[in-house]
Amino acid sequence: MSKDAPAPEGKTYRDVRVDRIGFVNELAKHYIEGDAAVKAKVKAQICAGDTAVGDFFQATLSPSTDRVVSVSGLFKLMDNGTITRAALIECLSASAKKVDELRLAALHARQAPGV
Questions:
Q1: Largest CA distance in the chain
Q2: pLDDT for residue 14 is more than 80
Q3: Are 72 and 60 in contact (CB under 8 A)?
Q4: Distance of CA 91 to the CA centre of its chain
Q5: pTM value surpassing 0.70
Q6: Do β-strands 51-53 and 58-60 pair in parallel, antiparallel, or remain unpaired?
Q7: 12 CA to centre of own chain
Q8: Using CA atoms, how far apart are residues 53 and 99, in angstroms rounded to an integer?
Q9: Rounded distance between C-alpha atoms, residue 106 and residue 85, angstroms
């Protein structure tokens, strides 16, 4: 127990899971919250399929081809003629749920009286 910690009230008992939680929290504080770039630095040094080995763990980089990205930059490239409309469309995929919502909204708009 830390010397700086106040004296606990109530019963005190030993539970090694407290140490595990503490270690995980310290790792998160130093490597996730404190230096978010550590993972990115390791990934930058590993080629796809290679394995980096530490004393206790190993990491194999297996990049995903599916990511969520903003397409605004692609539209700019199409607008300035760098890529074609067909090339832009090849890059895109859509959420089936969103597509269904758009189709339903379009159907209701067509059926609305006075439009």
A1: 77
A2: no
A3: no
A4: 20
A5: no
A6: antiparallel
A7: 40
A8: 44
A9: 23
> What is the per-residue pLDDT across 22-63, written as a single tens digit (0 to 9) for each?
888 778 777 666 565 666 776 677 677 777 777 776 777 676
* Contact in structure between 78 and 84 (CB atoms under 8 Å): yes
Token pair recorded at residue 70: 């903003």
Determine the Cα–Cα distance for residues 42 and 81; give it in Å rounded to an integer.
37
> Any idea which residue has 């832009």 for tokens?
88
For residue 46, which phi and psi values (nearest 5 degrees)?
-105, 135
Of residues 61, 64, 70, the one with CA closest to residue 92: 70
Q: How far apart are CA 54 and CA 35, in angstroms?
A: 18
Higher pLDDT, 95 or 15: 95
Instruction: Tell me the sheet residues that pair with 52.
Output: 59
Name the residue type at position 51.
T
